[in-house]
Amino acid sequence: MRRSEVSAGQHLLLLWLGQSAQLSEEALDLIGDPENHILYSTVSLWEIRLKQSLGKLKVPASLTEALEAQAFDVLPLRAQHTEGLVGLPWHHRDPFGRMLVAQAQAESIRLLTVDEPLSAYGKCVLVVNRGKTRSNAP
User: Fold this and answer.
1) Other beta carbons less than 10 A from residue 109's beta carbon
2) Three-state SS sequence of 103-116
3) Is 25 exposed, middle or buried (0-12, 13-18, 19+ CB in 10 A)?
4) In 3D, which of 37, 46, 56, 33 has the Cα closest to residue 95?
5) pLDDT of 62-74, one tens digit each?
């Protein structure tokens, strides 16, 4: 596989750090390939910490350090990313998922996620689920 940039969604990040056996072989290969540049969005961190503050998730305080130890790089949310939301179809209602799609489109990268409804956004999304992978790439 050629070098590519991939943004990993919040569920996938948590699975990678704690339950990677639940990821498909393709997801493990993509994330584990040192030739690939894996990014994590500040949008995903925001969602994780929000769920943590509501008591819905148990996440180590050192989450960012753990991601950086995996050689993942942060993808900050920029003003131009939000502009993509205006024309983004309402296939999905979750504001975090929509923002991740808009961010991936603006950066011309793929969003790697376990959120099946995001597949409606086409080739910028690669949906992976526990041992199964579905790609929208041509």
Assistant:
1) 17
2) HHHHHCCEEEECCH
3) exposed
4) 46
5) 999 999 998 999 9
